[in-house]
Amino acid sequence: MRRPTVYEPPALRRISFLAALDRLRQFSDLFVTLSLHRISVRYKQSRLGILWAVIQPLAMMVAFTLMFTVLRAAPAGSVPLPLFVYSALLPWTMFSGGLTAASGALTSHASLLTKISFPREILPLTYVVAALTDFAVAAVVLGAMMAWFGVPLTWTALWAAPAILVLIVFLVGISLLVAALQVRFRDVGLAMPVLVQVWLFATPVLYSLNAVKLSLPPPLYQIYTLNPLAGIVDTFRRAVILDQPPDYAALGVSAAIAALLLPAAYLYFKYAELTMADMV
User: Fold this and answer.
1) Other Cβ atoms within 10 Å of 223 Cβ, number
2) What does DSSP assign to residue 217?
3) Residues 75, 136, 60, 124: is their CA dihedral positive or negative?
4) CA 20 to 30 Å from 241, out of 22, 130, 141, 191?
5) pTM of structure
């Protein structure tokens, strides 16, 4: 039998990371159950089902390919343009889809927050798990495309693992932060589509990070790499299809930002959790 939870006025000094993580561990069964539920019902009423995890990046790939073909300004060099774009859309789609869904995780489950006591971070975390599942499904198509275009998978592909790990850490951190903020400021949900759209064009999905490095003066390039998605997306594409090591500086900046954001976001989330049931 679990001990009763006592809610007090919010105060940062009462928040313990270790206690919060231990309570999250105690509710691991709920986290697994809700994650599996999230994945199973995500496309339950859709005729195409899990194929939507592939259709979204494929549709964007086709649109971008046609755009660059018409403009005759393909950024891919010797790599087939569809492969160049799709390989970057995979981590980007995981991030954008996970963030957009997780941002409303608390406000869309108001009845749970007001009736049941459990670690509230479970709700946005389940959307991160669902986004990671979509990524895994779409990655199968990337492998098929590489085989079709005759692009071999080399040992540099191992760099994709730390890139995705940094992406998960960053996505968890920003999802916790945005989900907690949306409980207090509903404008966050309205701003999210615009933010994601602008963020897409500020990330090297349609172009390479090297092109940005050559185009911008060093100070502006350093500012550009403060976008954590820049190092993540570029590393994934370099590793998987370009047979190149990552830009270590850009990936390091992404990892540092993700590592700093996660504990700060979790601390704010636990602070905001104390009054979520009253505000949702």
Assistant:
1) 10
2) -
3) negative
4) 130
5) 0.80
Residues 6+ apart with CB under 8 A from 217: none
Is residue 120 a contact partner of residue 269, using CB atoms and an 8 Å limit?
yes
Residue 141, judged by CB atoms within 10 A of its CB (0-12, 13-18, 19+), counts as middle
pLDDT for 174:
95
Q: CA of 272: how far to CAs of 7, 19, 32, 263, in Å?
A: 12, 16, 24, 14
pLDDT at 75 exceeding the cut of 60: no
Classify burial at 109, counting beta carbons within 10 Å of its beta carbon; exposed 0-12, middle 13-18, buried 19 or more: middle
Whole-number Å distance between alpha carbons of 132 and 86: 16
- Is the model's pLDDT at 73 over the cut of 50? no
pLDDT digits (tens, 9 = 90+) for 194-241: 788 888 888 888 888 888 888 888 899 999 999 999 999 999 999 999
CA distance 8 to 106: 20
Distance (Å, whole) CA 147 – CA 177: 39
Q: How far apart are the first and last CA of the chain?
A: 28
Element (H, E) at 126: helix 122-149
Give 14's DSSP letter. G
pLDDT reported for residue 72: 46
Nearest to 244 by CA among 200, 210, 214, 221: 210
Rg for the chain, CA atoms, rounded: 20
Q: Please state, in angstroms and rounded to a whole number, the distance separating the CA atoms of residues 48 and 50.
A: 6
Q: Which of 110, 116, 122, 113 is nearest to 24 (CA)?
A: 122
Hey, how many other C-beta atoms are within 10 angstroms of the C-beta on 128?
Answer: 24
